[in-house]
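Posting this for the archive.
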Amino acid sequence: MDFAVDARAREKLEEAREWGRTAMRPAGLEADRNGAPLPVDHPYFAKALARGGGRTRWTGPPGRERDTGEPLPLTTTLLLMEELAYWDRGVTIADPGPGLPETSVLAMGTEEQKERYLGPFLEPDRPRWACFAMTEPGAGSDAAAIATTARRDGDGFVLDGAKCFIGGASRADWILVQATLDPTKGRAAQRAFFVERGTPGLGDFKIEKKMGMKAYESTSFTLRACRVPAANLLGGEKGLGGERASGSARKEGGGGFKTAMATFNAGRPIIAANAVGMGRAAVDEAITFAREHDRQGDPRVRDRIEAMARKLRMARLVCLRAGWLAGEQRPNIVEASMAKAMAAGVAQEATALGMELIGGVGARGDHLIEKLYRDVKAMDIVEGTGQVQRMIIARKLVGLPR
């Protein structure tokens, strides 16, 4: 494994550092003070678009592909995600773009679906969003238990159900909704459907109040007799199970559940990198506070700061290994879960250390460490809780029953 940072990566990291310092952290602090997500017309999003953000990784339709240059190694991408989260993780995920479902669309989508749903993100005319809707009131960590149904009706499907804690749903151009064709068949019957903004039956959007990560919206919504054409089934009808799929396809869910889990396996190292960045920010702020209050000579303070810096470096290495394996197209399920479980825990330790150090100052609610302390809890929850990650690791390493 080679985690060396070349000149191109250093340039990207420096750009990210400057953008984070001048734009992301101010926007994140503003949203936290206001207690609400950044509105879609916030100047930050226009600036993000102007600097080249909000684009898709898709290169374009066959025969008209754009030249995007040499792609960055996944390890470099993880370092960039760490750096951006250092400045504000909530703003990072509030950024416009195709977001979490992009990986699934690139892997499973038909060429027509890529052009229709990712095409507008090639050169967006305005800040645009898309999102992936898996979580439900009764199905969070147990993603196999989703209850949103997709019923075949003529030349389309009718979706019914409720989703919650979905990032950016109310502002998304389209939502990739995970649903089941038959609740009695568990994960094998799950499929994903494109549901576009304004589709009849899609509604009841409610932006949740959260203790942290206030820069982006976590939204609940419902699907009530929401009809979509068959063309909106991710991958097309070839991905349907039953008599149209082989035994292995039925076992794995015909690509529906399996593709959703692959999305999470790709995303978990990014969450881990985000957590490392937030932990770094907390340690740096703790060091600054110790210097300003002449406490850097206290051996207890020095020992705690040293321990957290050491643990964060360990977490970064585990995260980079998970990303390296993904870049080599090798299985990384265990490493991705290890990275997320470890990094989220260490980041929470780092912010807790910072809160202990600043003491009563943290109770005022205006110190960055206090904000990080509230923000970082999400890192143990999103894309599979820490408990779920440990279950995944145990199943793979010691054969824990499913």
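DSSP finds eleven helices and seven strands in the chain. The radius of gyration is 21 Å.
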